[in-house]
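Lecture notes, continued. The same structure-token format from the folding unit now serves as the input rather than the output. Read the line below as a description of shape only.
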């Protein structure tokens, strides 16, 4: 197996695009060698716990470019068959990353990340809400009641912060960032064709 470490934040639109493209490549190469681990990286580490209005957040961050950026994102998503319906709240994703940490212990990370991205970007749900996170956990095969209890505590909050700090120390400054075999870093939402080529190179596959 080949390690594929992915640093992502579910509120990053390019993480949604990047995962969709990667999944298509993996589906087309069921014999792929990747063992995937998702790692926390908050785009907005100073976001208030209650989050904030998404429109206000985007205007503060992007200014006059917010509308154009939104159109470009919607067009790219539509090319992949994704109809965006983002949450009106820009959440603090600390709890979402805590959930991803616990999902890693239960080998449910990919299902949970899929649920987080879908909830925030396609279903207009607030992934800063513990009830939403508990629902996502349960849908991914985890115990929603246990998750709710953990979310009500500070369990692993320091662990998420530690792992994120380690990522920044490694030089990671944007998401998504993919690291193949702990050696080769690939930044940004890459097309499925690139991942198919990587897989083919790793497996020695050559179609005639």
């Amino acid at each position: 197996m080949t390690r594929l470490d992915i640093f992502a934040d579910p509120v990053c639109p390019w993480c949604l695009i990047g995962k969709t493209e990667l999944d298509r490549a993996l589906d087309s190469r069921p014999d792929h060698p990747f063992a995937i681990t998702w790692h926390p990286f908050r785009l907005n580490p100073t976001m208030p716990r209650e989050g904030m209005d998404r429109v206000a957040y985007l205007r503060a961050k992007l200014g006059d470019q917010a509308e154009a950026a939104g159109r470009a994102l919607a067009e790219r998503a539509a090319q992949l068959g994704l109809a965006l319906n983002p949450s009106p709240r820009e959440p603090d994703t600390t709890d979402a990353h805590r959930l991803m940490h616990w999902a890693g212990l239960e080998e449910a990370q990919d299902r949970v990340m899929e649920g987080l991205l879908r909830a925030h970007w396609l279903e207009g749900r607030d992934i800063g809400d513990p009830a939403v996170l508990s629902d996502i956990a349960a849908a991914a095969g985890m115990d929603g009641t246990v998750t709710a209890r953990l979310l009500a505590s500070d369990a692993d909050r320091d662990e998420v912060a530690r792992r994120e700090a380690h990522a920044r120390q490694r030089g990671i400054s944007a998401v998504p960032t993919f690291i193949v075999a702990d050696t080769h870093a690939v930044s940004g939402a890459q097309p499925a064709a690139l991942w198919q080529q990587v897989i083919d190179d790793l497996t020695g596959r050559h179609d005639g």
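Point for the exam: The CA atoms of residues 15 and 34 lie 18 Å apart.
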